[in-house]
Specification:
The structure holds two protein chains of two kinds. By secondary structure, chain A is of the alpha+beta class. Helix content of chain A is about 30%, strand content about 20%. Chain A has helices at about 40-55, 70-85, 90-95, 100-110, 125-140, 195-205, 220-230; strands spanning about 5-15, 60-65, 115-120, 145-150, 165-175, 180-190, 235, 245-250. Chain A has an eight-stranded mixed sheet with strand order 3-2-4-5-1-6-8-7, sandwiched between helices. In chain A, α6 packs across α7 (about 220-230). The longest helix of chain A is centred in the N-terminal third of the chain and has 16 residues, at about 40-55. In chain B, about 35% of the residues lie in helices and about 20% in strands. Chain B contains twelve helices and 15 strands. Chain B has helices spanning about 20-30, 70-75, 80-90, 110-120, 130-135, 140-145, 160-175, 190-200, 260-275, 290-305, 315-320, 325-340; strands at about 5-15, 50, 95-100, 155, 180-190, 220, 225-230, 240-245, 280-285, 310, 340, 360, 365, 370-375, 380-390. An eleven-stranded mixed sheet of chain B has the order 4-3-5-7-1-8-15-14-9-10-12, sandwiched between helices. In chain B, α7 (about 160-175) crosses α12. Classes of the chains: A alpha+beta, B alpha/beta.
């Protein structure tokens, strides 16, 4: 079981059907803002929201980027280039790696601390909490944990029509104040536990996600919404018959 | 206390162009073999690859959704560590043994034919699963289920530092007492998209890479699976003392020309391992063979360690195995620590005059207590793994 984590700031963003939502890319240098994927743009917007909420700059934090499919549209574009034109765009290839957002943010903020990029399918939220907890137990004082998922191109799969979504949290050890809430008791969920319902509600709230489809990042969105609504709850943060779950305990300050 | 948190490497396994076991690979390294072949698929340009030997065996029917070259590499290699993993499972409990995969490409090689079929026939290949074959974590899930484990399971994907950073994550999970053992998998497989991409960047050679040579002209891509079981204690050839990580904060695809990020990673690694730079006996460099990387990295090594520490890059023999190289070259360091055998930097002669370190041009035999493995990547991601004697 991981030690409780303080949440110092959080934020989330969903892209509408036409991806026309104006996203805040001001964390990035102007010269690095062009030609970015929705995944990278969602990462940056959500990260900015969480950092602002925590009144923290990006320079001195360890950063974890987590996504089930990462730069999947860029991967499809590279496949398309090879199929249609027998070629490969260097700029596109450079930005196809899972740690694209990590590199761009470190360059823009001159942050030379370690940064990583994870993937764990529908367990991404729970596994990223493991990584964040381990980093905080080791040498990090603050961890910016950012999730993003863009739409999977139809050419790659008809089975994952999830909505584009970005969610971010600034996390610290349990005793850090002031904070927006606490994540506690990350543990295996017994099948008969009622918390599974909270996970399903979060998934069906997304416009593009018809129930019973579950968004890979639904647990992250559910945590953010519980904090915003000051509603304590127990949430499943993983997949399967006995997923991980975590207690979300918001704090209200005068 | 010094060394208190050093983890034991209790089992190792590998498959690469150098052979299908660690022992085969190590002996081929010492012989200086350069097993390059034509790419196993058609490309509109010339290059060579470090492909594994022979066709990879198909996955069993029950694992069909996971099928990719990545999965096949994992399955070929897994028997080398499966008994040790079973012992760890029995000792600690299945929920206390994690599985971390470091991979850059995931199962992209399986996505390529599925995409071509969709474009040609306008229908999806029913046998292709994006979630089970393409996704970065798919092989970690497959291995977890095959070995009946239930600890934290995820993929670290930071391009060419992926498996070095998976080792860092594994060590953190164990230090935080979230796991008692972690099986780290470093795996990347040849695929068209990667070779096309590196060709587009102008860094792909038409011959075997020659790291540190004045005549180097780029990388050749290899593939590998490198597996390490880490435990708190036990018997093993070597220990994982620390992993230092840093970001260049310089460029997405070019290394800092002064190697500052690489130097930071080495300094942080030594600090975490509580070692003095003078104690390092060998460095397995990232040493890709591109004009930019090798000089900058050599300057960083000279600055942090010394100009006299023996250095070699094994990528002239294995090819650049991308996300697998951190784990694979950590195995080579473990071998160096165990047997005192240092591989040469094959192809390095004539040395680039700007290279500031003692590049081994022949295999060497000497006592090694501390070995470093550098991994540097796209996005300015750096990691340095410290391996020490048991």
């Amino acid at each position: 079981m991981i030690a409780p984590l303080s949440i110092l700031g959080f934020g989330h963003v969903e892209l509408d059907e036409h991806a026309s939502t104006k996203l805040d890319l001001t964390l990035l240098e102007r010269t690095l803002r062009r030609g970015l994927s929705d995944t990278t743009r969602l990462f940056m917007h959500a990260a900015k929201l969480a950092l602002d909420d925590a009144a923290l700059a990006a320079e001195g934090v360890h950063v974890i980027f987590a996504s089930a499919f990462g730069e999947i549209a860029t991967a499809e574009a590279l496949l398309r280039e090879a199929f249609d034109a027998d070629g490969s765009s260097p700029a596109r290839f450079r930005n196809s790696v899972h740690n694209t957002a990590s590199g761009l943010l470190s360059i823009s903020t001159h942050n030379q601390l370690s940064s990583t990029a994870l993937a764990a399918g529908w367990d991404t939220v729970g596994m990223a909490l493991y990584e964040a907890s381990a980093e905080l137990a080791h040498d990090a004082e603050r961890v910016l944990l950012v999730f993003a998922e863009e739409r999977v191109p139809l050419a790659l799969s008809p089975d994952h029509p999830h909505a584009p979504l970005g969610v971010a949290f600034v996390l610290a050890r349990h005793d850090v104040q002031p904070r927006r809430g606490v994540l506690a008791n990350l543990r295996r969920l017994l099948p008969e536990h009622a918390a599974q319902h909270a996970l399903q509600r979060a998934a069906s709230d997304l416009a593009a996600d018809a129930p019973p489809f579950v968004h890979p990042l639904a647990p992250a969105l559910a945590i953010a919404r519980a904090l915003a609504a000051h509603e304590a709850c127990t949430l499943a943060v993983g997949d399967g018959v006995a997923p991980l779950c975590v207690d979300v305990i918001p704090e209200v300050h005068a | 206390m010094r060394g208190e948190e050093r983890l034991v490497i209790t089992a190792m396994g590998s498959t690469s162009a150098l052979g299908d076991t660690c022992d085969e690979a190590f002996r081929a390294l010492l012989r200086g073999e350069v097993p390059v072949t034509a790419p196993p698929f058609e490309l509109p340009f010339a290059t060579v690859t470090g492909a594994v030997r022979g066709p990879l065996e198909p996955v069993p029917a029950a694992l069909r959704p996971f099928d990719s070259r990545l999965a096949r590499l994992a399955l070929r290699t897994l028997p080398q560590v499966s008994q040790a993993v079973a012992r760890a499972r029995a000792r600690y409990g299945k929920e206390r043994v994690g599985v971390l995969l470091g991979t850059s490409t995931g199962g992209l090689d399986a996505t390529e034919p599925a995409y071509r079929r969709y474009r040609t026939e306008q229908r999806h290949d029913p046998s292709f699963s994006l979630r089970r074959a393409h996704a970065f974590d798919a092989v970690a899930v497959m291995v977890r289920d095959l070995l009946e484990l239930d600890g934290p399971t995820y993929a670290v994907s930071t391009a060419c530092t992926s498996s070095a950073k998976a080792l860092a994550s594994a060590q953190r999970l164990m230090r935080a007492e979230l796991c008692d053992a972690v099986l780290v998998l470093g795996i990347d497989a040849l695929c068209e998209t990667t070779l096309r991409g590196f060709h587009g960047l102008g860094v792909l050679s038409t011959r075997a890479a020659r790291p540190f040579s004045a005549e180097r002209d780029g990388i050749h891509i290899g593939e590998a699976a490198a597996l390490l079981l880490l435990e708190r204690d036990g018997d093993g050839p070597a220990r994982l003392a620390a992993v230092g990580e840093s970001s260049d904060a310089y460029s997405m695809s070019a290394p800092d020309p002064e190697g500052r990020g690489a130097a930071d990673a080495m300094q942080r690694a030594l600090q975490a391992a509580q070692l003095d730079p003078s104690e390092v006996d060998y460095v397995n460099a990232h040493g890709t063979g591109t004009p930019h990387n090798d000089v900058a990295e050599s300057q960083a090594i000279a600055r942090v360690l010394s100009r006299t520490v023996p250095v070699s890059s094994t990528k002239g023999m294995t090819g650049h195995t991308l996300g697998a190289c951190g784990a694979l070259e950590t195995l080579f360091c473990a071998w160096a620590v165990q047997y005192g055998e240092l591989p040469a930097s094959v192809g390095a002669a004539p040395l680039d005059a700007r290279v500031e370190v003692d590049v081994l041009q022949k295999p060497a035999k000497r006592a090694v207590r501390v070995a470093l493995s550098n991994a540097l990547a796209f996005g300015g991601s750096n990691a340095c793994v410290v391996v020490t004697a048991s």
